[in-house]
Fold each of these.
Amino acid sequence: MAYKPSSDKILFFTAGFLAIFGLVMVYSASSVKAASEHGMSSYFFLRQLAFAAIGLVLMYGVMKIDYRRWQNPRVLIPFLSLCVVLLLFVLTQPAINGAHRWLHFGSFGFQPSEFAKLAVLMFVAWFLHRYEGEINRFSRRLLPLGLAVGFFAVLIAVEPDLGQALCLCLIVTVLLFVAGLSWRYFLGAAALAIPAFYFFVVKVPYRWDRIQAFRNPFEDPMGTGWQITQSLIAVGSGGVTGLGLGASRQKLFYLPEASSDFLFAVIGEELGIIGTTLVVVAFLIYFLRGVRIALRARDRFGFYLALGITLMVALQALINISMVLALMPTKGIALPFMSQGGSSLWLNMLATGVLLNLSYQNKLAEAPG
Amino acid sequence: MSNSGRSSKNTRTALVILGISFWSLLILLRLVQLQVFEHPTYRRLASERQQVRRSIHAPRGVIYDSHMAELATSVTVSTAVAEPRRMKDIPGTARELASILGLDPGKLTRRLSDPAHRSFAILKRRIDPKVEARIEALDLDGVYFVDESMRVYPNRDLACHTLGFVNMNGDGGAGLELQYDGELKGSEGIYSFDVDARRRSFRVHVDKPPVQGKSLVLSIDKSIQYIADRELAAGIEATGAKAGTIIVMESETGRILALSNHPQFNSNKYNEYEADYWRNRAVSDLFEPGSTFKVVVATAALEAGLTHPEEKIDCQMGSINIGGHLFRDHKGYGLLSFSQVLEFSSNVGVAKLGLRLGEQRLYEALRTFGFGSRTGVDLPGEIVGLVRDWHQWSGLSIGAISFGQEVGVTSLQILNAINAIANGGFRVRPSVVDRVIDENGDLVRVVAPERERIMSPRTAEAVTHAFEGVVVRGTGKRAALEGYRAAGKTGTAQKIVNGRYSPSQYVASFIGFAPLPQPRITVLVQLDEPSRGYYGGEVSAPIFKRVTQEVLMQLRLPPDPNLPLPKLQPMAASTQDYLPNATPVRPLGSFSGRRPAGPEQPGVLTVHVGGDSAPLPDFRGQSKREVLNRCIDIGIHLEASGAGVAVFQSPPPGTRIFRGETCSVTFVQANLEKALAAAEAQYAAERADTRMPDSRP
């Protein structure tokens, strides 16, 4: 019987589990808001279901594309250029909640920043593959890479979406660390971070408020501490078994963004520590399978791309959860696969499609004969 | 690509895996902290924010007479309250409110402007429904109404000392309302609204259902109570007495059928009277009994075999020296039989019987009759009286005590002593409450009569015979009934004023029972300081006669065939005037003492109906207050039974009813859902400005 290589099933099912679990929780968390705003409790759920279906098709499609195609400049350069154009164009769009993040097609909003992240990761993977071992050459290698990534980060940050920008920088930094970037740069960056923190956080009142709220949420529970207080109450009141699926009370306008950024809090309230642990473990499995794929990659491009995608999903998940649990100050970062929103879901599914193709290619190479 | 470089990269990849794993572990630990260890704290915080708790009023139980007529019931009334911070124009609003509520506009403006009352001020309690409607019509900001329960005594003064009253806080303040407060009151329930962050309620649940108060069914009979009240008032009027008491007791059981004290008070407006008026003199006041106390010596001497009914006792022409003190009779007698000693109430004769008994046996006898200890009646404020131990008696005590001096007793104690003769030798425990029932009328418990034999039937019979002689031939002739045989004893005691027996202030009493040979009731009539006549046989006996005569007829006891028929016809017409065919709830105007002096003040029942008659509205589904208001509006009387929502009415809706006629309506407890729905609506009105922020950017 002929050996028939397949992609990583565990990764596939983990991603699928997270997406379906996410759908259920989005339905629960958004139903009241949907009923009050759209007169139909399944409004957001049905949208999200449609996104997930499209996402599945996208993932399947990307899974069939040999990942090595993504390092081809004829693919990568147009992709990057398109992202730049969209990121610039989105700034001209009317602001929603004070931010220019969405391109609108009818009632559907599309976030270019999500796709820019994948493009940048492909670029960085290509760069690290191309200049393997030369990364510590500052002016010839590190600076150009830094400028390129920084350019995208700035475009995202001015939307403003500082959370996404910082997240992108963090992923690239970890990739550079793995690529062998000298410790000196990390020390230097730390030295630069202190004044940057002062000017971009301490001096910006709403960010500083969030830091304060993070440190003492119950000091001003009706004001700056509102989000964190409500989030902690949701998670804490869930206890071990939770109030039951659909029984969240904090979703009744207590929790801001219950179905997106604070979805994890609703999970904690409705399903207790059983539900929350399940989510954390699922992300951990995703991460470990992703790293396994990276380590088995046939080339360095595959290694960095797989690691980048894995880190993107894992770091966003950890940051989002830490935020909900008041381990970090709140910053608008969605929970991958689960939070309500099409762009984020599509990105995660596309990226997973790339990972799955990597795993397929790895097995193909390992296959006997 | 060097090997060392590759291995360093693998080390760094391992560090990244380690870092992510460590971070995940940290999150898991945090979850354990929040969801396991701190879960109770957050659950509490959650319910504090997500729920609004309110109490549910538990209706107070009803007090019924022995025929289930309501003596005390509760109706819901409105209290006007203000939230001045929501008023746009305080002086203007205050002016409008003041004119309707009959308040001083200046004072009201100052009170509403006081920062201490920014969020809550009571405008006026227990306001008239019509006044409420007028204020509601103005649609003023920051003015609303809160339902409060008000105790209503439909018969006003009737049985006031037995019933007592309920104070402003809803606690029993006197009488049965105090004695049975725990059972009458029930317990408040708690319900909570689940509210969202916009303070909209979306679910109501009962955390603790209210427990409705239990109702009391008394042995008091409203008709008999009325007779006692009326005759006492008439007697006080006729004799100029300062105060007085009438008690009618069922001889066999000690159940009290009527207990009347003068002066009375109106339980509906108890706080317009001095606290002195609230006192139940029958159980709380101490007095020297005088000759009625002779029952103790007479009985004890018979029981001890120291005398017999036919024995002739030398009454020494009216004087006897005991312990160096000369005791006198009001008239000098020679030889009197045992019965005659009581008939003519000879102090000398009784003192001689007392001397035969000796101090210890006399002391034991009076304790056996219950003097010096509480009767155990279920009324508050009962005192034990004053009986000194025989070791502390002086040389003349034995004489004085024999005819009722040097001891302090309550009216109920002395009545209870005489009652032991009436029922053939039993000391009973007097009681006012017959049984306790729940809101459905089901029995909770019965107050069982308790009694104890304290003398032989023969002794009781001998004393009864002597007491009948008192009525037939002796000091109590004016107590004689028409058509019934009665027995009793007169008593005239000098009051002690400034440590000396007063020559002009007396307590005049008559205690008797009827009809012989099988007494049904024992009646005490006692007048404090009568000014026109002072002998018990002179002023109290006639009252005894009128009360007993009428009560026996009320009880439909056939007259003695051996006696001439009574001239009096059963149930005097005046009774029916006073008790308009058992109309427990009188129109509001007749009992509300805090009516505003507004232009619409309906001091008395006002009739708004145009013609002679009007079709009777359908009251079903309405509250007692609503029904009452409608009845006032169309000028008819309401005979209400039960509490809650009207379910049945007679005559039926649509019947043409003439004003002044009576409509009887049965109420049952409204179901909880309805009460909750109303509460929820009220909550919705209040919530407006207590909003929380929805979310923040």
Amino acid sequence: MELEAAKLVGAGLAVIGLGGVGMGIGNIFGSFISSVGRNPAARAVLFPTTMLGFALVEAVALFALVIAFIILFK
Amino acid sequence: MGDPLAQFLIKPLFPIKLGAWDVSFTNSSAFMVVVIVLVTLFTNLAMSKRAMVPGRLQSVAELAYEFVAGLIRDNVGDKGKDYFPFIFTLFMFILTANVVGMVPYTFTVTSHIIVTFAMAAFVFIGVTVIGLVKHGTHWFSFFVPPGLPGWLLPLVVVIEVISYLSRPISLAVRLFANMTAGHTMLKVFGGFVIALGIFGVAPLAVLVALTGLELLIAFLQAYVFTVLTCLYLNDALNLSH
């Protein structure tokens, strides 16, 4: 396989992790919504933690993106 | 369409050579100065009246103060009060740098890994030194979780040490990657608007929504950086076992 082609395939493989990130973010907000649905008073308490979890999970997506960029533009 | 990564280029404004070192005053340094001036002006102007009933500006400053103080109270406890000035400075610097970077044609200071890594390394070294000073050699028990069978220890301690050492890297890459990826995405969508002519209205609408999302991310990443700093500080101050 040519180097250029292998780079493109590798960058594509590197962002497979985004599938897990999608599940993670969906899980976080799904849990948040069902918690607030059960107990609307807990919304103010849960929201900062939800946002923290969202940001931490989203960072994983960006790690994958950085790896893809390193493969593509190194 | 221009190169979406061109916005991160560092250009020297006043070239300075110190022997073999290039210590030029760059656009990155200029925007760091802008950020510091903005934060200093804001906090000083807002608190200059010290009114009993705060005005609009003073309310914002008190909101920021109370926000960071609340983070430290919740995550570190009373022992963390001494570190409030550092954490408040860190939060305001990152938040202002992120938000200033959202203004078109400006430079985002936090989109360079060396800047974020310098901050993360400072936090990491500082927290380690605080832990060692407060607890002495007992601090190393941090790497040994309690109630573990003896034969698992070699494995778990190695994992704990690696996870401890990877903290500054994940802290730095999280902020840098969020800023870089966000700004690159905005630029790519901006290119679509011009390329599609009259149909560019659709990507323009997306762009408006994305700018809102990026403002949220700008705040969120400053928040996450601060919260994680608080959590690391908590590990150093309140050794659980």
